[in-house]
UniProtKB/TrEMBL annotation:
UniProt organism field: Hordeum vulgare subsp. vulgare (Domesticated barley)
GO molecular function, one term: RNA-DNA hybrid ribonuclease activity
Domain spans labelled RNase H type-1: 2-77
Pfam family, one: RVT_3
Protein name, as recorded: RNase H type-1 domain-containing protein
Domain of life assignment: Eukaryota
InterPro entries xref list: RNase_H-like, RNase_H-like_dom_plant, RNaseH_domain, RNaseH_sf
Length: 106
């Protein structure tokens, strides 16, 4: 669901070249068309592929959770607080330390 929501946001902002990362290798493989999906998530993956096609150039990349802590924190916060916001100019305060850590790891 996070991949679908991210692709939806990118599409609504009008981007046409993006790199989408996930710490779930199975999500990446399904979005790349490397794996077949026949479970309850099939409709979500089909929607991801449709959105990626409409966006234009989408590179799906796997990254380990340690390098993806900002996205993990954001997803956890949004789920726990039932929040649907986007921050395009400044990150929310609860996320700043995670973003700094992500940059320092590189």
């Amino acid at each position: 669901m996070a991949m679908r929501d991210g692709l939806h946001l990118v599409n609504s902002l009008g981007f046409n070249r993006i790199e989408a990362e996930s710490d779930s290798l199975s999500v990446i493989k399904c979005c790349q068309g490397q794996d077949q999906w026949w479970d309850a998530a099939a409709a979500v993956f089909a929607e991801c592929i449709d959105m990626a096609t409409s966006i234009g150039k989408v590179i799906f990349s796997h990254c380990f959770r340690e390098a993806n802590s900002g996205a993990h924190e954001l997803a956890k916060f949004s789920f726990c607080n039932k929040v649907e916001d986007n921050w395009t100019n400044e990150p929310p305060e609860f996320l700043v330390s995670q973003l700094v850590n992500d940059v320092l790891i590189i």
